[in-house]
Amino acid sequence: MEVLAFGVQADERPLIEEAFRGHHEVRCLDVFLTEDTAPIAAGHQAISTSVNADLDARVLRILAAGGTRLIAQRSTGFNNIDLTVAEELGLTVARVSYYSPYAVAEFAWTLAMAVNRRIVRACNRTRDFDFRLDGLLGRDMRGRIAGVLGTGKIGESFTRIAHGFGMNLLGWDVAQNPACLELGMRYTDKDELLAEADLVSLHVPLLPATRHLIDAAALKAMKDDAVLVNSSRGGLIDTTALVTELRAGRFTGVGLDVYEAEAGLFFLDKSLEGIDDDTLARLVTFPNVVVTSHQAYYTVDAVRQIVATTVRNVTDWAGGRRNENVLVPRTG
């Protein structure tokens, strides 16, 4: 059976081909799955998609009509998939439930320190042989408060690094993580966390209940000199409201690896044609903002785990077996 893999990055391709070798044939495409590209999948029972694939009702119907029966997404998040329609069409949808939490947590800290210590601005200056320190003043993290929204595996890893910096720890989640409690984390409500934290990092999934978790009111509740980091999902932050606060001169720094309208932008080269997203265009002009293109997961270790799980999902489906990664059909 040949698996058609959409949205494969150049660095990923050899890892995907290596993992599938001896199990299934795989054809890697650098194009992303959209309504326009979905017809390419005709004749393939199994496809694999990236996190920025567009799997709405129209795309799913095209896939089903072309003979696709399995969608194996190479990510943990699945907010881009209409699971209800997938189930109606008899499609099986699987994801990657787990991969290296360290990749994302370490990158979140990379963003936090980059904006705190003005690394991008400093690098740009030294390229022009400007070695002044004006505007590069940062802050020690030791003794300050880290607020972690979402303390699952990634949030826990982020918390361990914060503990290593000697920070005080505040957490918010539907359930308390014993490992975080052992590190000295105090769980509180979201309002108190936002009001007290010097650094706020988001590690929750994007669900209807968490969309715009950080809205205009939440942003106003934060300290004027706080650092905000989002390496989870772009829809957790109301970006228009964030731009408003940044224009008012608030926040020491904002590090974003995700953006709520990133589909059709991230993972693509728009340098020659530009973009028509005025919000993103304004966002990247702020000197205290660093935006990266959804790369927090992008380490050799994490990608290998993601691809290995994807191969297992395909193999189990082909063998008539259901594993813990299957989202559709639902059970219970």
From TrEMBL:
Residues 5-327 form the D-isomer specific 2-hydroxyacid dehydrogenase catalytic domain. Pfam families: 2-Hacid_dh, 2-Hacid_dh_C. Keywords: NAD, Oxidoreductase. InterPro entries: D-isomer_2_OHA_DH_cat_dom, D-isomer_DH_CS, D-isomer_DH_CS1, D-isomer_DH_NAD-bd, D-LDH-like, NAD(P)-bd_dom_sf. The keyword NAD applies. Gene3D superfamilies: NAD(P)-binding Rossmann-like Domain. Residues 110-296 form the D-isomer specific 2-hydroxyacid dehydrogenase NAD-binding domain. Belongs to the D-isomer specific 2-hydroxyacid dehydrogenase family. This is 2-hydroxyacid dehydrogenase.
